[in-house]
């Protein structure tokens, strides 16, 4: 690699092993990436990645950042993405099954050349890794910019942050909360509970300037749809994801007994961290081994950003210290400072 037109960086001599493995009848593609000189003391992690519809093999940055810091990584393409078979889904229990299968394959390939074994989850992977931890026999969890909220709570938090960032006050926020309460009922009931209420808020608030700004995870889609079309057809692009709306991440985490690290982006618009921090702190007070780091001036994906006067953001770099923190955690402990991060 030629850096700044001047300096050449040599390629790190990684050991890579491609494989295919089965999870509930679906063949998935994976790759073991071993740190140089990997041996019985080298940590090994398997990644649960985010909601993107693209594969991670040869594409994702995280595995290379970890291997470059002395951590072996097993990466795989989710079902329905990249080189893997099956249908793309956002059914978290099914994705957790795949993560368990990936963990078995990682250990098989790296047998005799790893020590600590853990799961890393980023974004949506923050829901999936805790679901898989016990069955995967992971000794630790490392979560980047994840949530301890269910999907409807995330949507509501996103909507509030969108409006707060645009300068709207408590009166508009209260109206928006009414809407996210309605859309939560809709998704959890299969579009049966809340259709008339949705029509009512569309008519009541549809012409107010903040109404069109609402996106959230899904509420903006509902607000822009005629109720008759929703009643007749649902929302096919959501339905085909086979989402399990009953999942309670706080209940799942309460059953996790291994040490956890949560690295959160303080200014995250997609996964606002405030409630997550409160819930992790409460779990820690009950005796769970949970470390929480917040990275200031970082948005989702741990990206630093430049913000324009209209509130739009342009991503710049990955916030310094994030990968150092995750790698140190995999190796068995965190120490010193990690960029501008602070502990909660």
Describe the protein's architecture and organization:
The chain is of the alpha/beta class and 344 residues long. It is built from twelve helices and 13 strands. It has helices at 62-67, 92-109, 125-136, 151-165, 170-188, 195-205, 219-223, 227-233, 236-239, 249-254, 274-285, 322-331, and strands at 2-3, 7-8, 15-23, 26-34, 44-48, 72-76, 117-122, 141-144, 260-265, 290-295, 303-307, 313-318, 342-343. The strands form three sheets. Strands 3-4-6-5-7-8-9-10-13 form a nine-stranded mixed β-sheet, with helices on both faces. Strand 5, helix 1 and strand 6 form a beta-alpha-beta unit. Helix 2 crosses helix 3.
- How does the major sheet shape up? 9 strands, mixed
Instruction: Calculate Rg over CA atoms.
Output: 21 Å
- Residue ranges: pLDDT <50 for 5 or more in a row? none
**What's the number of extended β-strand segments?**
13
Number of helices, counting only DSSP H or I runs of 4 residues or more: 12
Report mean pLDDT, rounded to a whole number. Answer: 94
Question: Largest sheet, order of strands side by side?
Answer: 3-4-6-5-7-8-9-10-13
Helix content: 25-40%
Strand content: 15-25%
Q: What overall form do the CA principal axes indicate? A: globular
Structural class: alpha/beta
Rounded to the nearest angstrom, the distance between the terminal CA atoms is 38 Å
Order of helical and strand elements: EEEEEHEHEHEHHHHHHHEHEEEHE
- Seen as an oligomer or otherwise, the chain set is single chain
């Amino acid at each position: 690699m030629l850096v700044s037109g001047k300096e050449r960086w040599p390629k790190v001599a990684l050991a890579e092993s491609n494989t295919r493995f089965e999870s509930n009848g679906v063949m998935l593609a994976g790759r073991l990436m071993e740190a140089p000189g990997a041996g019985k003391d080298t940590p090994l992690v398997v990644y649960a990645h985010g909601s993107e519809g693209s594969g991670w093999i040869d594409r994702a940055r995280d595995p290379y950042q970890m291997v470059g810091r002395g951590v072996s990584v097993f990466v795989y393409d989710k079902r329905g993405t990249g080189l893997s078979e099956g249908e793309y889904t956002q059914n978290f229990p099914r994705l957790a099954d795949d993560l368990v299968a990936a963990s078995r394959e990682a250990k098989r390939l790296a047998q005799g050349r790893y020590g600590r074994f853990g799961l890393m989850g980023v974004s949506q992977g923050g829901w999936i890794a805790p679901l898989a931890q016990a069955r995967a026999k992971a000794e630790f969890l490392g979560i980047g910019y994840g949530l301890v909220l269910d999907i409807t709570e995330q949507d509501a938090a996103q909507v509030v942050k969108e409006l707060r960032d645009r300068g709207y006050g408590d009166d508009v926020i209260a109206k928006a909360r009414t809407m996210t309460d309605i859309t939560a009922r809709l998704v959890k009931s299969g579009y049966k509970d809340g259709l008339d209420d949705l029509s009512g808020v569309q008519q009541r608030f549809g012409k107010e300037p903040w109404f069109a700004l609402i996106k959230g995870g899904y509420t903006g889609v509902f607000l822009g749809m005629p109720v008759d079309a929703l009643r007749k057809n649902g929302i096919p692009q959501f339905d085909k994801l086979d989402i399990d709306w009953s999942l309670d991440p706080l209940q799942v985490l309460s059953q996790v007994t291994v040490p956890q690290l949560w690295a959160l982006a303080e200014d995250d618009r997609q996964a606002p961290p405030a409630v997550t921090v409160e819930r992790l702190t409460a779990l820690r007070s009950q005796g769970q081994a949970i470390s929480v780091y917040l990275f200031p001036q970082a948005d989702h994906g741990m990206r630093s950003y430049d913000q324009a006067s209209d509130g739009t953001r342009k991503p710049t770099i990955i916030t310094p210290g994030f990968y150092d923190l995750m790698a140190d955690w995999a190796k068995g402990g965190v120490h010193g400072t990690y960029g501008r991060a602070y502990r909660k």
